[in-house]
């Protein structure tokens, strides 16, 4: 299999607002959630898939697209905001920033992927005649409400929290767990083994075990107490925050770091994420391009 494959979609649909979107997707990586989001936003895009190197890294030429050379990267050419065909494309990196940009510009609200920030909006009979008026009124009320600290909905507050927590707190913990496991199983000479065991044992007893327990007990109770009874983190509907949380949770559920017995709600939530239509469409897309898909 070649290191890089591409699926080019040149039929821009109306949701694209004239923008040509390209996703640089790396196997078994965080980038799968961006593919899932593109599917849920019903955007057309070009998908470039990459294999990891023998050292499990991204191929060096991803640095030609963004200086850090990590995946995901999204480029956007054209669109209605002045980035014309002749100009160089907008280059976006950092999953959270990419998700927010795509939701802001390509209908995160429309697709129900971003919870409402304030719930003052009255139930209205929606018809074409009063929609503009309603939107103006909502905007004015939103402006007024900006001053009221703490008036945001619980769903939105959770949304914002998870849009930071996934990479800011959870991923950094899971990366420590991943390295500890890798060091423990590394093929080192027998006389070195006691040293690696002592170091990893110390990290586990002083830091890792307690933090894993704290984070996953927290997540267990967050899922059980989701607004409107869940079953997603911010309430009844899947949001971009669930998509964002999918990578660390799918990754950890496939390893022995935590068990289904200890955290049944977390594992049931992961099952739900993998059953989501957009996730499955994203998997199907990879199978179409690369011939197979592996989550982590
Ligand atoms: N915080 C960044 C992390 C990006 C990142 O580290 N991506 C990994 C894939 S999961 C990567 O490209 N690894 C390959 C490498 O480091 O060479 C994000 O969320 O986008």
Short précis:
This protein is an alpha+beta fold. It is built from eight helices and five strands; from the N terminus they run E-E-H-E-E-E-H-H-H-H-H-H-H.
Largest beta sheet: strand ordering:
1-3-2-4-5
Tell me about the biggest sheet?
A: 5 strands, mixed
Name of the level-1 CATH class of the largest domain: Mainly Alpha
CATH A-level architecture of the largest domain? Up-down Bundle
Runs with pLDDT <50, length 5+? 122-127
Number of strands: 5
Number of helices: 8
What percent of the residues sit in helical stretches (DSSP H or I)?
40-55%
Shape call: globular
In percent terms, what proportion of residues is strand? 5-15%
Using only CA atoms, what is the Rg?
21 Å
Helix and strand layout, with pairings?
Blueprint: E1 4-7, E2 19-26, H1 32-40, E3 45-50, E4 73-78, E5 90-93, H2 95-105, H3 131-145, H4 154-184, H5 193-224, H6 240-253, H7 264-275, H8 277-290
Parallel strand pairs: 2-3
Antiparallel strand pairs: 1-3, 2-4, 4-5
Helix pairs in contact: 1-2, 1-6, 1-8, 4-5, 4-6, 5-7, 6-7
Bound molecules: glutathione (GSH).
Protein name: GST N-terminal domain-containing protein
Family: Belongs to the GST superfamily.
Region (Disordered): 120-144
